[in-house]
Amino acid sequence: METDILRFSLQASDFTPVGHGLVRPESVLCERDGTLWISDARAAVTRLAPDGSQQLLGEPLGEPNGIALSPAGDLLVAAMTGGKVFRVARDGATSVFLGELDGAPLGAVNFVLYDPQGRTWIAVSTRHQPWHESLARPEATGYIVRVDDRGAHVVADGIAFCNELRLDASGSFLYAAETLRCRILRFPLRADGSLGPREVFGPDSLGPGGYVDGFTFDAAGNLWFTLICRNALGVLTPSGRAHIVCEEPQPQALAQLADGLARGQVTPLDLAMCAGPTLKLPTSVAFGGPDLRTGYVGSLLLPHLLSFRSPVPGLPPAR
């Protein structure tokens, strides 16, 4: 029931470290066998096996971000400063999947997603590089690309720092985090891969400092999200009601960040100062484990993931 998830909360002591020595573990992806794939700035990704062993794979990409796992088992990795989507094979061989569009650089590539029809969806946060300069720019230059057998095409534009993308369980909507407007967008997904008119899912704003970064769905249709600058984990119910499960806001740092945004002068240090004592700039959330009730949270600053136990299982991994 919706009221049950709205009563769920977590404390800092409810989180358990997973993995070690990770660098910028922004995104995490779970496989059915318990393997975790984690973006890692030392290479492209870290493979964390069910027995706890770790293996670095791929070439250094420049802030590797979102990860997708193909039906064949190789990985696509979005590189923020690298400005491309890379393919990483299971042996670590790295190649460019998409490096430009219509002869122009992609920009700050944030996330990549496969769908059951074999299409690839790519979120570009901004056309500007370095990406953090866009935090101080008023224009919305983020966009979404669809790649299929007809090529690569922009299917949505004018998004204020486009972040993670997800499909709901039915495949009826493509959801996108619009970070700088503190909200979740969704687009009806038509059979031919085109998108219908955008709409806001949930509140028009998740509040001051509510910069939504990553999100995922559970089996009940709840959308779990992270608010990077508030060090928060929250839920949007299927009806769009918002509930914060836990948060560690740093009021002084948030005020300084808001002032910088207003003046058009923001640096990565302003972002780093918002980190909390436990949830240090959380960026993504995924569900795994034998019962799919283990949640994993990625971040920009921690050397590990954080895990927690969920009252609701996540959706089964595609592979």
Brief description of this entry?
This protein is mainly beta. It has helices spanning 2-6, 251-263, 268-272; strands at 16-18, 28-30, 36-39, 45-48, 54-57, 64-69, 75-79, 84-88, 94-98, 100-101, 104-105, 108-114, 120-126, 142-148, 151-159, 162-167, 173-178, 183-188, 199-201, 212-217, 223-227, 232-236, 242-247, 282-288, 294-299, 305-309. The protein starts with a helix and ends in a 10-residue tail after the last strand.
- The strand line-up of the biggest sheet is 1-26-25-24
**Average of per-residue pLDDT values:** 95
Helix content: under 10%
Number of strands: 26
The string of secondary-structure elements, in order, is HEEEEEEEEEEEEEEEEEEEEEEEHHEEE
- Taken as a percent bin, the fraction of beta residues is 35-45%
Whole-number radius of gyration? 18 Å
Structural class: mainly beta
Itemize the secondary structure elements and their pairings.
Blueprint (H helix, E strand, L loop, with lengths): L1 H5 L9 E3 L9 E3 L5 E4 L5 E4 L5 E4 L6 E6 L5 E5 L4 E5 L5 E5 L1 E2 L2 E2 L2 E7 L5 E7 L15 E7 L2 E9 L2 E6 L5 E6 L4 E6 L10 E3 L10 E6 L5 E5 L4 E5 L5 E6 L3 H13 L4 H5 L9 E7 L5 E6 L5 E5 L10
Antiparallel strand pairs: 1-26, 2-3, 3-4, 4-5, 6-7, 7-8, 8-9, 10-11, 12-13, 13-14, 14-15, 16-17, 17-18, 18-19, 20-21, 21-22, 22-23, 24-25, 25-26
